[in-house]
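User: Hey, my collaborator sent me this sequence without any context and asked if I could get a structure. I don't really work with proteins. Can you help?
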Amino acid sequence: MRPLHRLIACLLVSGLCPIAAFADDPLPLQVGRISFAEAGAGLQPGAAAAWSAALVNEPVMTGFSLRSGSAGRAEIRLPGIEVALAPDSEITIVRLDENLVEIALAGGRIGLRLGRRANGPKLEVDTARGGIWPAVPGEYDIAADAGNGPVRIAAFAGDVRFAGGGIDATIASGTAEVLGAAAEAPTSGKATADGFADWWRSRDDDSAAATAPDAGLAAMPGAAALAGEGEWQKNPDYGAVWFPQTVPDGWVPFRYGVWCWLPPWGWTWVDDAPWGFAPSHYGRWARIAQRWGWVPGNDAADPAYVPAVVDFLGTAGIGLSYAGGSGAAEAWFPLGPGEPYWPPRREDIAAVRRMNAGSGADLSAIGPAPDGGIPAAIINGQYRYRRFASAVPRAVFVGGRQVANALVAIPERRIEVAPLIPGGPQIGPPAPHA
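Assistant: No problem. I've predicted the 3D structure and written it out in structure-token form, which is a compact way to encode the shape of the chain:
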């Protein structure tokens, strides 16, 4: 059912979010990721967008909402912060940047873990009753309803402050309090775990990202998921390189997953592999001794998100023709170390340079051409992994269908000479269904 869930999610989101809807919004460089989603979990990428099935490895940012199903749980990983949702819970990310993560708990129950990352963002949780400010590091369990009912806060590790409705209280580590109406005194007790608390507390991977040699990946969303899924090696050219352990024969990056239209980025890659988030949105891929290895680069401690570290091929807005096809195909290939990434929107050159920091790309070459377009050196660059391009019919691409099941053959010579389309195919999402 997973491919069907992806198709429904992509169609619902893309059908309601035309390009113009986010043309003026700044591209966010800080994101989180959906790391767990049971049946019934939903994602809303902005208040005006439709709810759709939440998919593991989808990005989340300011303005996104996540809810769990009536019998299922969900989880997101933000920089230095893990947020688990009990069944029948809903949150909105009010703010997500390098200074503050602000989450509104619309109702239900969440578990929070704040990691040991130095200089990480502060956390604020808003409820209908008041604000909650946990200490760092710490583990906290918060339950609240959508109305003016009581708020229950359990501090398993670390102190936490609550303020609102005439109450200003600090819940000490190891204790729990139920904060009632302003006229009622809070009730205190010991912080005790149940099944949900045992579950989310067992998922601690705060130190997993530290397994990379000298890579400094603790601040990179999805990096902890690499632990146990591959091996790190030192490379004289690239430094730390991560090689996935178990991939299908002929595996190529950006071939096993789907494309989704998510504002404000547009076409966004959602990888099938549990570890696929970080290698899809940060760093570069390199072909080393007939193996694909992921190179996080030398700026992994302060990474900037991109929707997919690829370039597209063909004619902008048109794509490529292919034998036996009645329409166009969309084709793309992974970028290697030193190769620049260009987003579909590049009015903020400083942001584009941030996206390429640490990749080995020449940042001085990242700037508008005299005519305001992309420099010729970028368009005509020698991209080493063109020959590993993946191509699918446009209907598969825009429909959010599995890429690996629908590949079409493009002659190697066509791939070699096809024009480069940096950042995206320059096509919009499918029209909404009537």
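In plain terms: The chain has seven helices and 27 strands. You can pass these tokens on to your collaborator as they are.
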